[in-house]
Amino acid sequence: MSNIKILVTGVSSQVRSALCARALSAGVSAVWFDDSILNSLQLESIKAAIVSFKPSYVVNTASYSVVDLAEDNAQKSYVSNHDVAMVLAQACHELALPLLHLSTDYVFDGEQKVPYKEDSFAAPVNRFGVAKLAAEQTIRQYCPHHIILRVGWIFSAQGNNFVLRTLKQLQEHHQVKAVSDQYGCPTYANDVARVLIAIIKQLECDIDVWGTYHYSGAEVTSWKGFAEAILAAAKKHGVTEAEAIDAVTSLEWPAAAPRPAYSVLDCSKIQTTFGIRQRPWRSGLVKVIDQVFKGKHVI
Description:
By secondary structure, the chain is of the alpha/beta class.
């Protein structure tokens, strides 16, 4: 067992759950933070709580990530996504602790036709993206020893995500509509956990690789293409009579928040720096759906 201990924020985060589960098998000790302490935004209280855990690293997966709700609750989104990150960055810097922070592909406007690099111009089109971009800027200001990891389209066997919502629709209505003109890369939460641990283990070598990185599952798709993969996997379990996914455009889809039409992340920097390769999201999807329907479990 190594002496690495990570303190993870975000009790309801899909990545937090995956990270804490994976850490044990990776020889890393993981504990998680009480969100109520974090949400207090009281720097001294947060510092005291962090010190009590004696971590080697702090990993912030806390996020107000329901994009449409963030559009209607802009202040709550900004406090949860920016203010929390700011005070955590201040605390980590004052305690000389590195901070790893999850951000999003939604910091981009979607106007590009090629994958976004870490230094591509960021111009969010929704309030969730605005708050997450502000959090990045604050972390860079207050905590030089940071890793910001932008990810996109996170899914797992728990929480609120596109896979579970689609499965529920397929089971209950045997029909699903999905947007066909927004493109990105689905990302398995367990793969993000794997990436974070791999980064932490390399940071132990005292290499100067602080900064912003991208990671997503391999293979670009649309929400419709993602839904079609979910349908194919679900049919193998005999849980739906649906035969196809109905395509709709962004304009036809009733959403409070606009989404970027193209939010594909260029993940070459993380491979060059850490040797981390993208994994196919389809293999993660099969694992998630097998987990959901183990014993014909109905979500």
